[in-house]
Design goal:
The chain has 198 residues and is an alpha+beta fold. The protein has helices at residues 29-43, 80-93, 122-129, 133-136, 155-164, 177-182, 186-190; strands spanning 12-20, 46-50, 54-56, 67-76, 108-114, 193-194. It has 7 helices and 6 strands.
Length: 198
């Protein structure tokens, strides 16, 4: 059983992305995301900052209802793998299943960045970063990869990330978030609509 280590010592800055496009036993997608915030904050996180909610088309296009997306910035005393385990506990409690990669889901929580760490190695990160899209659809990594290899491709992550961390810099490329957003197709960015305040 994972033990809470929310002891405010040796805390690291982390960024987590949340997405949902299916209702469940705990209510609407907004309710589910709020509940996931609460479950993580209660035991594992401190100093949490929340982005607004954004509505974004499903990915890949046409793969289910629109998503609600958000990002939080927080502090934690958990190690990267302990935090990932905590995320999985919360997802499972809320009814998350992993039947289909990038399929519709009740909740999806991704660890985007853990204090700028590159894990397990730069070589492994680059392997997953450069993997062709078709192969990504059917392949899962066996362990945690940091930073998340797809951050720079996803406007629906970058826009809410910018809201809580306007000075964030990619740990591998050293590019600022404004630069990364500038690399996204403007037509794709127009599809990301803010639907709540932070």
């Amino acid at each position: 059983m994972l033990q809470a280590k929310n002891d405010r010592t040796n805390q690291k800055t982390v960024y987590l992305a949340f997405g949902a496009n299916e209702c469940g036993q705990f209510g609407h997608v907004f309710d589910i995301i709020y509940l996931s915030y609460t479950l993580l904050h209660k035991k594992y996180l401190t100093k949490v900052e929340y982005s607004p909610f954004y509505q974004t088309p499903s990915f890949p296009a046409g793969n289910g209802p629109d998503y609600v997306n958000s990002v939080i910035k927080a502090k934690t005393s958990l190690s990267p793998n302990e935090l990932l385990a905590a995320i999985h506990v919360v997802e499972n409690r809320l009814g998350r299943t992993r039947d289909q990669r990038w399929g519709p889901r009740i909740i999806d929580i991704d660890l985007l960045d853990y204090d700028g760490h590159i894990l397990p190695s730069l070589e492994t990160y680059r392997h997953w970063r450069e993997m062709p899209l078709e192969l990504q659809k059917t392949t899962w990594p066996e362990g945690l990869i940091l930073p998340h290899p797809r951050i720079q491709d996803r406007g629906f992550v970058l826009i809410p990330l910018q809201a809580v961390a306007p000075d964030w810099v990619h740990p591998v490329t050293d590019e600022g978030i404004d630069t990364l957003i500038g690399n996204i197709d403007p037509q794709e960015l127009q599809k990301i609509v803010q639907i709540s305040d932070g």
